[in-house]
Amino acid sequence: MLTLVELAMVAQAAEDYAACWYGPQPAAVFSRWDCERYVSEGYLKHLHHRYNLDELMAAVGAHLDANPNILTAGRVSAAELVARETERHKRAEAVLDQALIAFRAGRRAEGLRLIDAAEVEAPLMRDYDRLRARVNATKS
Questions:
Q1: Which domain holds residue 23?
Q2: Other Cβ atoms closer than 10 A to 80
Q3: Residue 98 Cα to chain centre, angstroms
Q4: Same structural domain for residues 28 and 40?
Q5: What is the pTM (predicted TM-score) of this model?
Q6: In 3D, which of 3, 21, 132, 121 has the Cα closest to residue 70?
Q7: Does one domain contain both 24 and 56?
Q8: Does residue 116 share a domain with residue 102?
Q9: What local confidence, expressed as pLDDT, does residue 140 receive?
Q10: Which of 85, 88, 39, 29 is nearest to 62 (CA)?
């Protein structure tokens, strides 16, 4: 079963790239199965060590089922992809700023919860386990 962070990775990959691999495209017509496969193979490589392709395709498919507008919205431009990534990073950094404030105020549990929340916003932005380890290594 995918974790909350892994589900966020699936959602972001599907939202950013699924429309590139569905329906009529310049070189071919892609089915829904093609879309799920290519998103899983190409944009979720960092999960291949934990899940097989069928599991990832099912997760992508479930996200697309819940958000059918993704496939009808059309391809996302390169500029929009950059903007989305930038916005995710800004949101995660803002949450990490709050985590640092909580940690410095002695609210370690809140700081750790906020690190978790930042990871959901931008899962691949940084090594969140390292941040957690630093918090956990400090004395209460």
A1: 4-75
A2: 11
A3: 21
A4: yes
A5: 0.90
A6: 21
A7: yes
A8: yes
A9: 56
A10: 39
Phi (first) and psi of residue 31, to 5 degrees: -85, 175
If one counts the domains in the chain, the total is 2
Task: Work out the average pLDDT over 74-95.
Answer: 96
User: Phi, psi at residue 48, to the nearest 5°?
Assistant: -60, -30
DSSP string, 44-93: -GGGTTTS-HHHHHHHHHHHHHH-THHHHS-PPPHHHHHHHHHHHHHHHH
d(CA 128, CA 11): 19
Tokens of 42: 């190409």
Strand duo 23-24 + 29-30: pairing: antiparallel
Are 18 and 64 within 8 A, CB to CB? Answer: yes
List pLDDT tens digits, range 45-75: 999 999 999 999 999 999 999 999 999 998 9
What residues have CB less than 8 Å from 9, skipping those under 6 apart? 44, 46, 47, 123, 124
Half-sphere exposure of 55 (CA within 13 A, CB side): 13
Calpha distance 41→134 (Å, rounded): 33
Place of tokens 């059309």: 74
* Tokens representing residue 76 in the block: 């996302």
Residue 99 has pLDDT above 60, yes or no: yes
Q: Are residues 47 and 96 in the same domain?
A: no
